[in-house]
Each structure stands twice: as C-alpha cells, then as structure tokens.
Design brief:
Elements (H helix, E strand, L loop, with lengths): L15 E6 L6 H4 L12 H5 L5 E4 L1 H4 L4 H8 L7 E5 L13 H11 L1 H6 L2 E7 L8 H13 L5 E4 L8 H10 L2 E6 L18 E6 L4 H4 L4 H4 L6 H16 L4 E6 L6 H15 L5
Parallel strand pairs: 1-8, 2-3, 3-4, 4-5, 5-6, 6-7, 7-8
Length: 280
C-alpha cells in the first residue's frame, strides 16, 4: 500500500494529507488496468486500499447505508484506512419534508461502525445546483446540520449564491468544512476557493473540467477529463499549500472516474505533493 504520511510524525503542526478517489467500484477500471483482469466488484476495495489510504463512498448517495454492510467494508481495509461518505440523496436532492428527519437518523445509524472505529473522516453533504441560497433552503440546511451534529460534516455547494462571507462565517461557527471544488468554469457554478472553515480538516474534490459534458446528463461525458501536471501544480501552489497551513488534515479526491483517470491523477497528485515536501 502506498505510504501517504506527512512530517506530522515529527511535527504535529504539519498538516497531514490524504489523496484518493470518489468511489472505487468501477468495472471500467478493470478494463483500464487499474484492477487485475477478472476482478469482481466485491474484490475491489482491498485492492484499492493497497494503493490509497482513503476513499469517498459514493453509493451512500444512492442508497441509505446499512451498518452491517458498512462494517463488512470496513473490515476489508487496514485499521488506519479512512472513509468519507456522501450523504444520501433523500437528504440533499429528493427531500421529503415529512420524513427527512427520520432519514437523517437512519443515516447516522448506518455510519455507526465507521464512527466507532474512528475511520469516518467526513460526511459529504453534496447539494445540487438548483439548491440556491434562499430563505427556505437556508432554513432547511441549518436544520439538517443540527440533526447531523456530532458527525464530521463537510458541505459541497454547487450554486454560486452560496459563495458568501456570511455562509463561510456560519460554517466556521458550526465547525463544518467547506468543500473546495475543481470543475468547469460555467455560469452559476460554485467557484474554486481556498477557504478553510474548520481547523481540523480541509476537503477538495476534482471533478474535471469537461465543460461540454458537464450538463449533458451523461456521467461518462461529465466526468471524462484527465488533469495535466500544470493544472495539478496550480492547485497545489495556489490552494492546497495555503489551505494546509490552516488545517490539521486535508483530504483530496478525484471524481473524474472515466477510464480510470481518477486513480491515475490521484497517484500523480501524491507524487507532486511529495516533490513539494507536503507529503513524505
């Protein structure tokens, strides 16, 4: 397994960085050579954990996590392996005003094995692009954060209206991490920022810059992108290094999963971070 450790062991003031991918179970990654030929989906996580020390669970957005299933996955990884997990879509995209509170309780129960083992680094609240900063949406988000209080929360806004100093101040007050995003430069999208709202953690997601495919409704087009060294260098110098000076830990995920570009870019990011002495 790749060693992804910083100088934290010698200097506790140095930010510890973790790099991985958004999801790990893609059949096309077998075809692309990331997994050995014939690898089945149930065999992917242990193989993934040999190369990365963290992953972002995507399937928890599509379905409510069950504690038994989460525990089985946890046991497939080393004790030091970390998980971030998306909040289920019934709490972010398909909200039922009558039942969302119960859904939040169910989610918390499903994540319990990772919480108890100390392997849950963040719960990703990914909000849709149509979730604008309106009074009803602000009220709902505040109630959701209250309901999930105690979990390590991180918010990814997709609409530019949330890029507001009052929002950042409220996240800081609540000790909720603002997620930095790299995505196409299109009207209305949340901008790429280096703002740290929680001293314990910063969180960055690389979605790719495929402007033509972004709003196509086809994930294979939307996330088909391969980052260049220059683009990764720019992020390291202008955002990741400054953010690492304001947080104890940082997590970086690549979501450009098409043709296994995500793990390829993640491994390259690790190499570049090591060259900059941000990881050893």
């Amino acid at each position: 397994m790749a060693t992804i450790i910083t100088k934290e062991q010698r200097d506790p003031n140095v930010c510890r960085l973790f790099v991985g991918t958004s999801g790990f179970s893609y059949t096309e990654w077998v075809e692309a050579g990331f997994y050995p030929p014939g690898t089945k989906s149930g065999e992917m996580l242990p193989l993934y954990a040999r190369q990365f020390s963290i992953t972002e669970l995507n399937y928890t957005w599509y379905q409510m996590p069950r504690a038994e299933a989460i525990e089985r996955q946890r046991q497939q990884t080393p004790q030091e392996f970390l998980f971030a997990a998306k909040l289920t879509r019934s709490l972010t995209h398909e909200i039922d005003p009558r039942h969302w509170s119960d859904q939040a309780v169910n989610y918390r129960e499903g994540m319990a094995p990772l919480v108890q083992a100390g392997q849950l680094i963040a719960v990703l609240i990914q909000l849709p692009p149509w979730f604008h900063r309106t009074p009803p949406n602000r009220k709902y988000l505040a109630a959701l954060l209250d309901k999930l209080h105690g979990l390590p929360l991180a918010i990814e806004f997709r609409h530019r209206s949330w890029a507001n100093d009052r929002v950042f101040a409220e996240l800081e007050r609540r000790r909720v991490t603002l997620v930095g995003v790299d995505e196409p430069d299109l009207p209305g999208l949340f901008p790429a920022l280096d703002i740290v709202t929680h001293p314990d953690l910063f969180y960055v997601r690389f979605h790719g810059r495929n402007a033509k495919g972004w709003r196509s409704g086809n994930m294979q087009l939307q996330f088909d992108y391969n980052y260049s060294d220059d683009e990764l260098h720019e992020w390291i110098e202008n955002k990741i290094e400054p953010m690492s000076k304001r947080a104890h830990r940082g997590i970086i995920f690549f979501n450009n999963h098409v043709r296994a570009q995500a793990p390829e870019n993640a491994r390259r990011m690790v190499e570049l971070l090591k060259e900059q002495n941000l990881m050893v």
